[in-house]
Write a structure and sequence with these properties.
The chain is of the alpha/beta class. The chain is built from ten helices and nine strands. The protein has two domains: 172 residues, HUPs (Rossmann fold); 85 residues, 2-Layer Sandwich (Pantoate--beta-alanine Ligase, Chain: A,domain 2). Helices cover 38% and strands 20% of the residues. The strands form two sheets. It has a six-stranded parallel beta sheet, sandwiched between helices. Strands 7-8-9 form a three-stranded antiparallel beta sheet. Helix 6 packs across helix 7 and helix 9 packs antiparallel against helix 10. The longest helix is centred in the middle third of the chain and has 16 residues. It is globular and about 55 Å long. The termini are far apart. Keywords: ATP-binding, Cytoplasm, Ligase, Nucleotide-binding, Pantothenate biosynthesis.
């Protein structure tokens, strides 16, 4: 596996692959890899000739007071894990390499960013669009892989690709969970032992919310009651929205039940995407 730290080095490698007509799969990450990331890399490995994995803790998507400085990092372990599941290139640029000068042109996320995490993290998705746009251009990927755990991010990136005719196919990866249902996340390491024992209640609340939705009941109070009774966390939001539009749901089509819970040092998000045609 090649470890590349510069944009020019990556461009040269990509040019060689393109000359050989080899398809490129791309998995963008912020590192501290877990099974969720590895499942995306495996999926990319199956569907492409070569696979690029990026590790870049993107400062543009962190707001004041957020956890940029303490975001978990372990490059040696990440390198071994990425290689073990078939990555051909690990792209690990510095912030100075990615952003050598202040941007004179910016992208702004639209109405999809006004709900869910975007409401309490202004500018976060602008930063996501900034780095993803650069990475799409640098990798020239045929397919890019994103997990459904970050459902709002996935929806916004799908809109970016559609609205600006990016020549890349976005592939969704199912949320990977611990045995007790907790969604895999790099931030799970911030949970205290007590919080870790409580955290699976978030997934259970989503299950109850899905049952309520499909039986025609309001899922929000059902989920809120369960989380408040079984965790010490504070609910940031619970929302039921159409997907991927992230507007008020209509009678049929896809919808998302999404939740964010703030613990002392970790903010956990989770969701379930459901088809409203399944209503009883």
């Amino acid at each position: 596996m090649n470890v590349i730290e510069t944009k020019q080095g990556l461009k040269c490698w990509v040019a060689t692959m393109k000359q050989d007509n080899r398809s490129i799969g791309f998995v963008p990450t912020m590192g501290f890899l877990h099974e969720g990331h590895l499942s995306l890399i495996r999926q990319a490995r199956k569907e492409n000739d070569v696979v690029i994995v990026s590790i870049f803790v993107n400062p543009a998507q962190f707001g004041p007071g957020e956890d940029f400085e303490r975001y978990p990092r372990d490059l040696p372990k990440d390198t071994a894990l990425a290689e073990s599941v078939g990555a051909d290139v690990l792209f690990v640029p510095s912030a100075e390499e990615m952003y050598p000068a202040e941007a004179q042109v910016t992208l702004t996320a639209g109405p999809q960013a006004d709900r869910l995490c975007g409401r309490s993290r202004p500018g976060h998705f602008d930063g996501v669009l900034k780095v993803v746009t650069k990475l799409f251009h640098l990798t020239e990927a045929d397919r890019a892989y994103f997990g459904q755990k970050d459902a709002q991010q996935l929806a916004i990136i799908e809109s970016l690709v559609r609205d600006f005719d990016f020549p890349v196919e976005i592939r969704r990866g199912a949320t990977v969970r611990e045995e007790d249902g907790l969604a895999k996340s790099s931030r799970n390491v911030y949970l205290s032992p007590e919080e870790r024992s409580e955290a699976p209640a978030i997934h259970e609340a989503l299950r109850l919310g899905r049952e309520a939705t499909l039986s025609g009941r309001d899922p929000v109070p059902v989920m809120a009651d369960h989380i408040e009774r079984h965790t010490s966390g504070t609910i940031d939001y619970i929302e039921f929205l159409s997907y991927p539009e992230l507007t008020e749901p209509i009678g049929s089509g896809e919808a998302v039940l999404a939740v964010a819970v703030q613990f002392e040092k970790a903010r956990l998000i989770d969701n379930v995407i459901l088809n409203l045609k399944e209503k009883y």
